[in-house]
Amino acid sequence: MPVIEVKHPLVQHKLSYLRDKDTPTVHFRKLVEEVTLLLTYEATKDLPTEDVDIETPLEVAPMPRISGKKVAVCPILRAGLGMLDGVLTLISGARVGFIGLYRDEETLQPVEYYVKLPQDVADRDVILLDPMLATGNSTAHAVQLVKDAGATSVRLLAIIAAPEGVENIQSNHPDVMIVVAAIDRALNEKGYIVPGLGDAGDRLYGTK
Ligand code: URA
Fold first, then answer.
1. Measuring CA to CA, which of 50, 55, 130, 180 is 20 to 30 A from 3?
2. Would the pTM of this model clear 0.85, i.e. be above it?
3. Residue 139 designated active-site
4. Is 202 one of the annotated active-site residues of the chain?
């Protein structure tokens, strides 16, 4: 599936503040939430609707309501947590699953440390949250994990992706819709996206 890069001026404006090393944690957190909300809008544009009869104060008329599956939103810990409220602002009834993965800094491979998914995840549209799609190894692991739990519809929201990460997901999980604010130039030798925004978790939570 082709990757969707959201070029909307609001997204790009907020992203430039996220990239700025001098943006403080308090603003960074808010901006991640706002960008995620805008990505959610884009990522859900194909949700099916069906007309239901609505009684307005004047008459009854058929109006569209979202039909089909309900949503499970699954942040990949810890940085994905920063994106959660952005999705829930628009999809308040979503169930939430947590996927705890960290990246082994030597092998760059994902290590699972905590997984708690909604019991009915197989019946839901899954939205995975991972702000930095770098090598894509952790994210591909998370996609496989929700698929193993029965999910058949998976969307991935990331703030910034590296070309390598996009290619990883597209080749291993071609059915997954990827929505990002930007696809950056490359990964550096330490696995960071450049120009990127640094370590999303550290910048969200003020750790270093
Ligand atoms: N994770 C981050 O937080 N930043 C990167 O640039 C790559 C992975």
1. 50
2. yes
3. no
4. yes
